[in-house]
Amino acid sequence: MKKLVYLLFLATIFGQEASKDNIQNISIVSTTNVYSEFYDCGCPKNPLGGLARKTFFLKNMMPGRDSFLIDAGNALFDSNQINPDNLSIENKRFKARNFVKTLEFLGQDVVNIGSNDFKGGVDFLINITDNSSVNFISANLYDKSSNKLLFKPYHILEKDGAKNSFHWFRVNQQDQTFPYKQEFY
Prior knowledge:
The longest helix is centred in the middle third of the chain and has 18 residues, at 89-106. The protein has 185 residues and is of the alpha/beta class. Helices cover 28% and strands 17% of the residues. Residues 175-181 have low confidence and may be disordered. It has helices spanning 2-14, 50-61, 89-106, 122-130, and strands spanning 27-31, 67-71, 110-112, 135-137, 141-142, 154-159, 162-167, 183-184. The protein has a single domain (28-184), classed as Metallo-dependent phosphatases (Purple Acid Phosphatase, chain A, domain 2). The protein is built from four helices and eight strands.
């Protein structure tokens, strides 16, 4: 499997045109494990967290730059270990629904589906992501009954003629299986 990963990496590197005329400046802002945090976590050493930190970064560190905004997963629900919010499942769903709307407002481009994003149930997750302007993706999450992918496996973003493809595979957190394993929900 390592050989396959290396082969894909090399194909990506050497498959690009390498002339000076084709060089593009592309900014990618990536987050992960936001855990539906709108505000900072109250951590004394690092007081900004969640969307507050992301907004601060984009406004102050990347002013005027057109960036791709991507998230690697675990965005929609709190973590049981990190800042648990102790809300009922209905309140957690309300918060997740509003979190998706906030991501749309911020112009989020792509979000991978993480294991924590299933806390509200598969049907709820599909419902809040289905008509969103945010591209929710995962390349190895399948519906048990139909054996079809639950989400698009990738999304391509284009800037100034340069196409960038984003692919994600969900890793099973319990057994740390390699991410190409099919997960059924």
